[in-house]
Every structure is written in structure tokens, then in C-alpha cells.
Amino acid sequence: KTKNGEEGEGKQDHIITEGAKDGISCGNSLADQAFFDSLSSNTAQTNSAAKSSNQASLANDPWSSWNVGKSGNWDNGNAVDSWATKPESAAGQRNNASNNWDAGAAFGHPQAYQGPAAADDDDWDDDWDDPKSTSPSYLGYKETEASEPGGVQRGNSRAAAMKLPLNKFPGFAKPGMEQYLLAKQLAKPKEKIPIIVGDYGPMWVYPTSTFDCVVADPKKGSKMYGLKSYIEYQLTCTNTNRSVNHRYKHFDWLYERLLVKFGLAIPIPSLPDKQVTGRFEEEFIKMRMERLQAWMTRMCRHPVVSESDVFQQFLNFRDEKEWKTGKRKAEKDETVGVMIFSTMEPEAPDLDMVEIEQKCDAVGRFTKAMDDGVKELLTVGQEHWKRCTGPLPKEYQKIGKALQSLALVFSTSGYQGESDLNGAITEAGKTYEEIASLVADQPKKDLHFLMETNHEYKGFLGCFPDIIAAHKGAIERVKESDKLVATSKITPQDKQNMAKRVSTMAYALQAEMNHFHSNRIYDYNSVIRLYLEQQAQFYETVRDRASALFARHLLCCYFYRK
After folding, report:
1. Is the dihedral of CA 523, 524, 529, 530 positive or negative?
2. Which residues of 388-423 are buried (b: 16+ CB within 10 A; e: fewer)?
3. Exposed, middle or buried by CB within 10 Å (0-12, 13-18, 19+), for 209?
4. Is 1 marked as a binding-site residue?
5. SS3 sequence of 279-324
6. Model confidence over 375-434: pLDDT tens digits?
7. Residue 477 assigned ligand-binding role
8. Does pLDDT of 120 surpass 70?
9. Is 249 annotated as a binding residue?
């Protein structure tokens, strides 16, 4: 594929749109067309909303673009994110879990492999660096051309028209839900995902040892004799202490592979947005690295994603040949979309259809309500950030300057007994100017982390409409099975198989919600504690300054009376 998007030999890209998706056929029956159909829904609404957001965003507001186009489409019911709890040991989790879903460092870096060589660029579309890709508002970086038709909205990639190389995704001919529910016998995949039942319901099996991935040491590289530049990040696993280097587009590739493979069972939040202008500036690189770190930490601490072949290969390849081999293997994986449920094995009896539907509805209600709450907090936090970095410090500065001006006027009176008073008023004015600086700096110490956590969860919650829609679609098919049996379109055994497979899907949903709730409780406990602690320190600092001024004023009054 050429840089301008023309078709090249052996590769063919298409725009998946609402009008064209029915004619797609690639000849393999194992993939899930319904999953990919969801990627193209609501394109017009997304582009329109992104354009309005771009025009309204302010340069000094790091979250001005978060409230548009980041969540899934909850309103029409169609299918459409950094810290997690430490996973428990496999032995202890049958009796322990963090929450009942029903209730609602520096590391040594050895010489790292430098990633795919420049000669491998034909495997990586230059469209990853298309200047029309999303450019989010971040501190002084305004959005540029993100709302142009056809541009990929990273924060809402599920709802926008996406440019996907279809030859990379096998089997794209028929709706995948029927293929999973009605298959006479599911192929036995090599990978198995067990689901156990603990004291708080179904849960994933956590590995006995956990790991994290440190994203650090961003370096600027170039290719094409310096005509094209990029930033490369070093990734080091804490369990191996080995390092590999990846560019942003490699993260993007991993995100798409995880989305294609697990997206109907596990929420895979979007990566940080792309940037057109200012992407080599220090502040932007620092923020992107922070958010990539949060995203990788999330993935590392998910017991299913972290153990998957594609994720392990991304972190542990040793040379260029191993990288290419693993990459192509991942792109040929047929266990994608709804077929991921064929790898899951609940260690529990099948669930009743009434219970399955109730559980699904409960998840839908909670995630929708939490999505609304997170968006509200992001909106309020954004407004508070603007106020703390704009009008409020200016008001304190005005008071401080006015007090100092008044003291200057008093000093011209020539009266001998007011020097102490004038000094106290001048000091009060300077203190108010110091308080203005404290107010302007405070959001970076507390509100920043609260907003980042909410932004992550907004990404998670935006994935659930797809997941809920897949489960409801499967439930409806089981409800229709009696009619199909009566008309001899399926056999009674097919109906029984359908019910069993929908039960497996329900166990997977409950296991994921158990994981989600335990992480949610840990994350919000941590970030709210940090926020309140920093707020307390801020007000204590202001109180100490004001108390010192008050003591000096009392001293002035005492000497004046004397």
C-alpha cells in the first residue's frame, strides 16, 4: 500500500461503511462480521461531534476533547480506560475475590532489540502516520484536522469508519454469532480460558506470578534519510528485565489485534490519541508516555489478555525474524470475535436463560449509569481545571496587587507610626500573589490524577455497549430457537447447544465484571485518597500563610496601641 492510500500488490484496504458492509466476503467462515459491523456505526454522529468539540476546545485544557466521542453509543442500543488490583494466586481465588459483581520503579535496561528494521516498513502502513489522523487537544496543542471525513477517531474507533486491511482478518463472510451458536462441533483451540466460581461468583483464573511493563526512555528516530521522524519507547517487563523498543504505531497494531480477538468478551480501551502538530515536543511526549504506561499496565494485569500469545509476543520477541513471524501468526488467528467464547470453559453448571438475561441487564444498567457519572465528573473537573488555572489565580493576584498599591499610598503620608502597618499590608499582598501560584499549580498535583483515572474508565465503559449487544443478540437467538425447532430449521440438540454456549458467554461476562469491579474499587480508593490528601495539604499551606499574616497584623496593632 502506497503512502497516498493506493492499492499495492498483495494488499487491499477498504473503508468499512454502513452501506458497503453487506457485500464483504473473504471466504472463511470463522470470523465475526457482526463484530466488525459495529466498528462502522454512527460515523456521521461521531464526525459531527468531534468537529464541534474541536472548535470549542481551549489550548490550556488537557481534557477538553474527552467529553465527546469517547464512549460507546448507549443511546441507540446498537453494538458499537492505571492501576489494577494485584491478581490473586490461583490457589486462593476460589475462596477470595475483591468484590461481588452482583452488588453492583527504575529498572536496568539491557541492550534492547530496536524493533523492526526500516526494510520492514512495507508491513506497516504509512497510513498510521497520516496527517489527517486524530490530533487531540492537550495543554497547548489544539486539534487540527481530526474531524475531516474519513479520519480515524482514536478515542471512539468503535463508532467511526475505520480503514482496515481486510486481508489481515481471516474469514469475513457470514454473521459470526450463528457460527458460534449453531456450529455442530466447535473446533478445539489450543488456547483454553478457564472460568472458576469463587465466593463472589465467576472469575478468571489469575496467573501465579504477575508482571508489569515499564514504558520509558523515549527517543527520536528517523528513516528515509531523515525525511520521516518518529518517537520510539523502550518497554521492559518486570518479570524478565528484558527490553524491546516500539513506536506508537506498533502499540496501535497491538490494540487492534486485542480488540479483534477479545473485544466482544473483554473491554479493550483505546490508546492515547494521535497528534499531528507538536508531537515531538517534550510535554506531549511525556503525557503520551504516561498514558501508554497506564494502558500497558491495564493489559498486563488482566489475567486473560496478559497471558495471550499476541501480547506476550509483543513484549518478548528477540529479533526481527521472531517479530515478523509472531506478527503474521497473530494476523492469521481465527479465534476472533464471538469465537473467543469457544476457548472458555466454565467450571460450573449451565445457567438458566432467565438468570442469564437478568445478569446481562444488570451489567448494562450499571455500566450505563457509571458512564454517565464518569462523564459528569470529567465535565465538572474540566471546568474546575479551567477556573483554577485561569480566573481564580487572577482574582488572588488582583487582591495582592491592590493591597500592595494601598500600602504604597499609605507610605506617602509621612506619618511616622504606620511603617509596621504598611509592611504588614505589603506582605499580605505578596502572600496573596503566592496563593495565586499555589492555586494555579494545584490541579497538576491532585485533579490531574483523578481526571486521568476517569478518562481510563470512560474508555472501558465505552466498550460495554458492544459487549452487551453481543450477549443480548445471543439471548434473542436462543429465544427464537423454539420456532426454529418447530419448523425443522434446527434440531433439538442444536437448541441445547445454543443454550449451553450462551451460558458460557454469561459466565465470561460475570467473570469480566468481577475483575472490573475489583479494579474499580481499588483504583477509586487510591485516586480519591490521593486527591483528598493533596487538597488537605493545599489548604493547610494556605492556612499557614494566612495565620502568619494574621499574627503579624496582631503584632502591628499591639505596637500601635503602645
Report:
1. positive
2. bbeebbeebbebbeebbeebeeebeeeeeebebbbe
3. exposed
4. no
5. CCCHHHHHHHHHHHHHHHHHHHCCCCCCCCHHHHHHHHCCCHHHHH
6. 999 999 999 999 999 999 999 999 999 999 999 999 888 887 778 888 889 999 999 999
7. no
8. no
9. yes
